[in-house]
Design brief:
With 62 residues, the protein is mainly α. It is built from two helices and no strands.
Length: 62
């Protein structure tokens, strides 16, 4: 689990550095990064919700 967090942080660092290089604007890169982090958090929440729903359904069948 800890390795996934480190990998996730490295990916975010590479993406943010790439955005800064492409846009050459700190504020635009910051705005895009904030939107990407929001989408990432929403997708993680959606996935957790559906995993717990699937786990509840499978435990009822047993």
């Amino acid at each position: 689990m800890k390795m996934m967090k480190i990998t996730h942080l490295l990916v975010l660092l590479v993406v943010s550095a790439g955005l800064l290089y492409l846009t050459r604007s700190f504020w635009m890169s910051l705005g895009i990064m904030m939107l990407l982090l929001l989408v990432d958090a929403l997708l993680a929440q959606y996935e957790r919700k559906h995993r717990s729903k699937d786990d509840d359904t499978s435990s009822e069948r047993d």
